[in-house]
Amino acid sequence: MNCEVLLINPVTTHDNVDIIIPNLGLGYLAAALRAEDIGVDLCDGNKSGMNYTDIERRIAAGGFNVVAFQVYSRALTKTIELLRFVKKISPDVKTVVGGPHPSGDPANMPAMIPELDFAVRGEGEESFPALINRLRSADYSLRDNPDFSKIPNLIWRDGEKIVVNKLKVISDLDHVAVPAWDLIHPLDYDTAPMGAFIKSYPVAPVCPVRGCPYSCKFCAAHTITGRSLRYRSVDSVVDEISMLRSEYNIREIHIVSDCFTGNREWVLEFCESIAASNPAVNIALPNGIKINTIDKEIITALERAGCYAISMGIESGSQRILNAVMKNQTVDMVKEKVRIVRDNTKMKITGFFVMGFPGEEKPDILKTISFAGKLKLDRAQFVFFLPLPGSAFYDEMKKNGQLASLDYDKVALHKLVYLPKGVSSSFLRIARFLGYFIVYCRPGALMSVFFYIRSFQHLKYIFRKFLKVFS
Questions:
Q1: 367-423: per-residue pLDDT in tens?
Q2: Residues 309, 438: one domain?
Q3: Do residues 216 and 287 both lie within one domain?
Q4: Cα dihedral across residues 76, 155, 142, 3: positive or negative
Q5: Whose CA, among 54, 89, 217, 316, lies 20 to 30 Å from 380?
Q6: Cα separation of 291 and 451, whole Å?
Q7: Total of domains in the chain
Q8: Nearest to 265 by CA among 239, 224, 229, 291
Q9: The domain spanning residue 351 has which CATH number?
Q10: For the whole prediction, is pTM greater than 0.70?
Q11: Interacting residues of 353 by C-beta distance below 8 A, sequence separation 6+
Q12: Domain housing 96
């Protein structure tokens, strides 16, 4: 099969990224293209040893009709440079972007990038193959102005007009092929997993659930997977885990869905099925579970299924801020849920915290630091607020003219791109240091960290991440 489409993640390991895992997004797209007999190759910059020159070399090798980029905000500048490179050496090749940034700010992508032919927002497993088939029927030519209006999620040019087609989510996830794991082989990635610490290696991410019904003002996940919760069948997920264990020798699974525990009956059925099939893998939930969805029955079932670590989106120790960001949880609820996990399981708990929300004041941040220390977490992550395209805060701030000087290259974890009124950058950096200090400088906390380091490469990644946090 000829390679008609080249999928690219332009962020490389040389960009000092925080997470290096098999790229599920591109893996799913590749599988969807193959299901339509469309030849595809994948160039993931996150693979071990990849750099920007390697990506340019793969583009220059040619042999395809379409080049598509997965775009996070931090990679926008690099993507634009590569789009220009594509058009310079192969003017007839069609260019497409998708991923978080175009999903969060769809209309602006073609308007700001002349070298871009199309963008896809939201889930692309149906719309992207439909686009390729439509281009095929026009012999990859736009001269006769083919009509793209019936392809959901597509952003395209109709003459001088930018058209943003209707958004559609995929209702039945069992109709989505599992990722093309041969193109995102887990052993091709360095030991730098999503949760930073692992119990066993190799690790692979699995996504059983899509969608998030919540309205947190700092989050833009809904721009890709929508608001409605949709679950794969339990059998589908268990089969994928078993396949990863048998074919790729995967020994740890990271569940990367945002609302994994949103459907109680499904979670209990999944846990029972995993425990019965005994695929001999450890399980972790590094994405952050919704705190109000767990109780004793859920967390003990997870532990029986092999889950040894969970992450909680705590965000703040100030109830005023939790209300302001529409987190839909209370400080007392957080304390109670942490206690339930502590009292009934041996699972490790990581807390996620954000500092510098719009409207946040110094006392709120100090409350977060104090709260984090009192919770007796095993690990914690403190990040600065980021105005993510597609989030409610981003839309508000853009409308108010607060993002005119936003440098998208810095919209990444641990980067400081926004300061709330009355809060200095030095205060936020010191506050973040104090947060980490109060969590990790407890007896046994650091020893627990070192216990979960699995290789010299993993140790280098942890050290690099440490330096980044405090740089």
A1: 999 999 999 899 999 999 999 999 999 999 999 999 988 999 888 878 899 999 999
A2: yes
A3: yes
A4: positive
A5: 217
A6: 27
A7: 2
A8: 229
A9: 3.80.30.20
A10: yes
A11: 314, 315, 316, 317, 368, 372, 380, 381, 382, 383, 435
A12: 5-164
